[in-house]
Design a protein that fits this description.
The protein has 278 residues and is of the alpha/beta class. The chain has two domains: 126 residues, CBS-domain; 139 residues, Roll (CBS-domain), CATH 3.10.580.10. 36% of the residues lie in helices and 22% in strands. It contains 13 helices and 14 strands. Strands 1-2-3 form a three-stranded mixed sheet. Strand 2 and strand 3 form a beta hairpin. Helix 4 crosses helix 13 and helix 5 crosses helix 12. The N and C termini lie close together (6 Å).
Length: 278
């Protein structure tokens, strides 16, 4: 029976409670990750902050403070949910599902951080051990929240925060693209009210130079991923997991035989299937 020590990520990106949110945003972008563990001076985990936490903050904050003025402690979840290295994978997976969280901090007998298990780790596990067990259509999400490419970036941020989503398909008769939390993290400074009001210099976002006064004109089309990788509804779920790992993405639009969008399958869905593997 596989234990977390066999599947967890050991090189964990960490930060200190005294660091600011701009530093966290940079860590998320630079390392292409979705969470940072906050540790104290003894390397014991005291909190965790995710790209969802950051997005939620920048779209709802009314303090008027910029990201570099806010300490992590104002946004991070604390204490983080931790488990022992010896915990069985299916037990840890069920814990994540029951608590509605996307990662578990892994600690040793002294409560010192030794790793983290995320949906990506579970996806890798399922890709290797789940072939032949399930089809994509059994676990995909069928009720979709969608948007149009011409709508403002702020609308996409609102949808993600309101519905607690990590990705939104962009549709206009057909699937045009997808916008994800990673896309939003890349432009998060522009979503801060203070940035919009106070910045006088242009902002560099996803390779674009955007005048501060034009930030409100950004549309979903400007930052979405076009022609995203898709998968068939009758494909093996292990193939979906493998595609996500290979392309470092967290979800796939699902198409039927007529190439119509019928759902989205995510790492969360893969995790639910992983819980059935003993």
């Amino acid at each position: 029976m596989a234990a977390l020590k066999d599947v967890m990520t050991k090189n964990v990106v960490v930060a200190k409670p005294s660091d600011n949110l701009l530093h966290i945003r940079q860590l998320l972008v630079d390392h292409e990750i979705s969470r940072v563990v906050i540790v104290n001076e003894r390397f014991k985990p005291v909190g965790i902050i995710t790209d969802k936490d950051l997005l939620r903050h920048v779209t709802t904050d009314t303090s008027g403070k910029a990201l570099d003025e806010l300490p992590i402690s104002t946004v991070m979840s604390k204490p983080p949910v931790s488990v022992a290295e010896s915990t069985a994978v299916h037990v840890a997976t069920k814990k994540m599902i029951d608590l509605g969280i996307s990662s578990l901090v892994v600690v040793d007998g002294n409560e010192t951080l030794t790793g983290i298990v995320t949906k990506t780790d579970l996806c890798m596990f399922y890709a290797s051990n789940g072939r032949g067990r399930h089809r994509v259509e059994e676990y995909m999400t069928k009720e979709l929240v969608m948007a149009h490419a011409s709508q403002p970036v702020f609308y996409a941020a609102h949808l993600m925060a309101t519905h607690k989503l990590s990705r939104i398909p962009i549709v206009n008769d057909r699937l045009e693209g997808i916008i994800t939390l990673s896309d939003m993290a890349a432009v998060s400074p522009a979503l801060s009210p203070r940035t919009i009001v106070a910045k006088s210099r242009p902002l560099l976002m996803k390779g674009m130079i955007v005048p501060a006064k034009s930030v409100h004109l950004l549309t979903i089309r400007d930052i979405m991923t076009r022609d995203p990788i898709t998968i068939s509804s009758n494909a093996d779920l292990a193939d979906a997991a493998k595609l996500m790992i290979t392309h470092r993405i967290s979800g796939l639009p699902v198409l039927n035989k007529r190439k119509q969008l019928v759902g989205v399958v995510t790492k969360t869905d893969i995790g639910k299937a992983t819980a059935s593997i003993r």
